[in-house]
Write a sequence for this structure.
């Protein structure tokens, strides 16, 4: 009986590992930026904070103690997902904040007729 329970637990943990790997390889995460003015400094800071938080949750699904290798992999994943999200957003102020520039250095779009 113990053997059947152990096999079921092992099978479940292996299935969870496969789902986590597929989720990480999928590389898609959703971030709610509704209601934020991405052209303002405050809105851009809020957006970047939400993106970073979502990337942290997306990349680190293990609670408790972690090996140094796992921590490094999570940091790299968070950096990559944050960069991908900001790139896809096409918001100059958010991009400037991510790159460590002040928002006054952000490119200004000029309207054309």
């Amino acid at each position: 009986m113990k053997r059947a329970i152990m096999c079921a637990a092992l099978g479940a943990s292996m299935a969870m590992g496969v789902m986590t790997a597929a989720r990480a390889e999928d590389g898609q995460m959703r971030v709610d930026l509704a209601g934020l003015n991405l052209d303002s400094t405050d809105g851009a800071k809020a957006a970047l904070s939400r993106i970073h938080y979502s990337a942290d949750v997306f990349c680190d699904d293990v609670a408790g103690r972690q090996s140094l290798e796992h921590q490094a992999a999570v940091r790299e994943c968070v950096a990559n997902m944050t960069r991908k999200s900001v790139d896809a957003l096409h918001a100059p102020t958010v991009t400037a904040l991510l790159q460590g520039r002040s928002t006054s250095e952000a490119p200004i779009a000029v309207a054309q007729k």
Remarks:
- The helical segments are 2-26, 41-59, 68-89, 92-98.
- The chain has two domains: 1-29, 31-113.
